Amino acid sequence: MKRWLKSPELRIGEGSEEERHATWLEIFFDLIFVAAISELGQNLNQDVSLSGFVSFLLLFVPVWWSWIGATFYANLFDTDDLGHRLLTALQMLGVGALAVNVHDGLGKSSAGFALSYTAIRALLVIEFLRAGQHVVAARPLTARVAKGSGVAALLWLVSAFMPMPLRFGLWTLALTVDFGTVMTAGESVHVELAPHTSHLPERFGLFTMIVLGDTVLAVVDGVAKQQWNVSSAIAAVFGMSIAFSLWWIYFDNLGGSAIQAARTCHHIRAYQTWVYMHLPLVIGLAATGVGVEHVVSSDPGVALPSAERWLICAGLSLCLLSLGVIYLTGLSINAKLRCKVRAVYRFGAAAVVLILAVAGAGLSPVELIGLIAAVCAVQIILDLRQAFASF
Description:
The chain contains 15 helices and no strands. The protein is 76% helix and 0% strand. The N and C termini lie far apart (53 Å). The protein has 2 domains: 24-192, no CATH class; 199-389.
């Protein structure tokens, strides 16, 4: 009985919980976002254009931010008690409602999207207020987050009853309040309540894996949309190769050095950069997945349309640029030089892929995806060469 009636407690100590992992509830919670991410991908899949990408971006940010709030709460205070489980279950319902309303989230279902997001933020406010009651040392943070998220939730609620485009103006203001609440917190708050160095990278890795999984699904869907032939098979292999390469170069460098730097060296900027650069990373991964699907399902004898070419190239470039910046936050003494070198590799690869977007107008789908897969594979080769050279 005591297990279910526990109060929130600070879970960021590095002593007894050095290898803390995500709970089954956290993993289940992450899986609920599969529906939202898939719906966002479908939106982009149906409108491969600049306006389609902007719409995809505007809806992706609040979906990701709703995950961030729950993830940081769990990292800091999760004791897997009855209260937390019930509040998490309600948040999962909110995420499900968010996924339902994503399909036309900037149109007729935008009010439903706003109300769903309001519910998720309100539940987060309750969790942080509850934690503040029991963890005195965390009250400066819990009070700040509860206040900022509460104001943002109120703006989202009001927006649901406002006409467009005023509704979207309130969304922008609410997200600004949400981001600003955390980013403008004092250095002492970030240092004293820095997240757990093994748990948080694992949660970010799980979310990244979810988005990568959509890329694999995109390859399957792309092949299924056309008659099976040699060209489609080759394109599918290249698509899987891109997904595998992105998995390799992200997870082979996943660690908590930026978080540890916030704890020991007060490098708050590196820690915040590590966190927030995951947003463009997962946006790029999702866009790349949609781009791969269009390439694989295209007529192999016809040059890829410019919109599809730019989608896959720009999406992948965004991934690589984000990874490069993330590597630069690796501040441990032993890994600092290695991370800087790998960041240069990623920046160079991003530039090459963008060149393909500009100069690849005459390339067939198989040729384009083959060159992109080669660029990604070279990243693995360069990493391995660097690793072997260090022995």
